[in-house]
From TrEMBL:
GO terms for molecular function: oxidoreductase activity. The lineage of its organism: Bacteria, Bacillati, Actinomycetota, Actinomycetes, Kitasatosporales. Signal peptide: none annotated. Pfam families: Pyr_redox_2. This is FAD/NAD(P)-binding domain-containing protein. Residues 8-274 form the FAD/NAD(P)-binding domain.
């Protein structure tokens, strides 16, 4: 049970590869860490027993990191503290913040205007995610039967998992993935076994038919009809992005500007991307999380010892590098253990 009245050294937003890896290093170095996952997230009890992310989350929890699941409603910094509020009433404070929620990829250029939120979504939500056009075509006496066609488009495992979640709510389900390594993964096998289809291809154009169905065109010449289109990772536009709440300097796409260690324009906030769609996505995201975590620990030590200008600060910096340099990270995250 997470104590919402407790103050933490670091508030980590995002429990993916970057956030979990950072939390493990931070907790292992003796910091009090809270990990909040804005989309419902990952917690030790919610993950399958195998896989690099599940192992990293369990190791972070074993080192003392605390996990809370829930949508982040508000996060701000003022004075020497940061305050995080999540759906359900939880409110937490901390000295520093690590945003590990990825960069905003935006919607694909080929998606027709007005399709997002009506027949195109970032994730399935049971029968409620069916498009209104598809629901209208179901005869009145057969409203309970799934009839629509669902197509999930993405790089790999994420698109396959979205397709699997849609199997019970659609007549036909197809996953269109660009990562060839994902064709033979467990999720692809399970989707085929459930009657779904998996193809390696890229969607390059789409048009909305008068019926409301989307017609997708691919580089391999396929024409796919989708009553419901899933674009995992695209993300719906948000009214109050975390970058705005924290007053961060952003680029043209709304992504925080950071240093090589993830530091933002807010001296108490770090940001790392958490792209796990590619085959090497976990390793890259974990490495970025570790670099940011080291920077945060260094900042904490330097602040407590009087800063880099003092002899104590320089000594703390050397001690930090020696201690963190000896830590290992299990699985793919080990690729980031030498960065810093």
């Amino acid at each position: 049970m997470v104590d919402s009245e407790r103050h933490y050294d670091v508030l980590v937003v995002g429990a993916g590869a970057a956030g979990a890896s950072a939390a493990r290093l931070l907790a292992g170095s003796g910091r009090r860490v809270l990990v909040a996952s804005p989309g419902g997230g990952d917690a030790p009890s919610a993950l399958p027993p195998a896989g690099p992310l599940a192992r990293t989350v369990r190791e972070a929890a074993g080192d003392g990191a605390e996990f809370v699941r829930g949508e982040v409603l508000d996060i701000r910094t003022s004075g020497t503290n940061a305050r995080l509020r999540i759906r359900g009433g939880g409110s937490f404070t901390g000295d520093r913040v690590l945003l590990a929620v990825g960069h905003t990829p935006g919607l694909p250029s080929w998606l027709p205007a007005g399709a997002w939120g009506r027949c195109a979504f970032d994730r399935p939500r049971g029968g409620a995610r069916r498009s209104r056009a598809a629901a209208a075509r179901v005869p009145a006496g057969a409203r309970g039967r799934p009839r629509d066609v669902c197509v999930s488009v993405g790089r790999g495992v994420e698109a396959l998992e979205s397709a699997l979640l849609s199997v019970g709510h659609a007549g036909r389900v197809t996953a269109v993935i660009s990562d060839p390594d994902a064709l033979d993964c467990d999720q692809a096998w399970r989707l085929r076994r459930s009657g779904g289809n998996v193809v390696r291809d890229l969607v390059v154009a789409a048009m909305e038919l008068p019926s409301g169905t989307l017609k997708l065109l691919t580089t391999e010449g396929r024409e796919l009809l989708a009553d419901t289109l899933l674009l995992p990772g695209a993300g719906a536009p948000v009214r109050r992005p975390l970058t705005s709440l924290l007053a961060l300097s952003v680029d043209a796409r709304g992504n925080p500007r950071t240093s090589s260690s993830g530091r933002t324009s807010n001296p108490r906030v770090w940001h790392v991307r958490d792209d796990a769609g590619a085959a090497d996505g976990f390793s890259r995201a974990a490495a970025d999380g570790l670099v940011a975590a080291r920077s945060i620990v260094e900042d904490i030590l330097l602040s407590s010892s009087g800063g880099a200008a003092t002899g104590a600060g320089a000594s703390a910096r050397r001690g930090l590098r020696r201690s963190l340099g000896s830590r290992t990270v299990a699985g793919p995250a080990r690729l980031g253990s030498a960065a810093g």
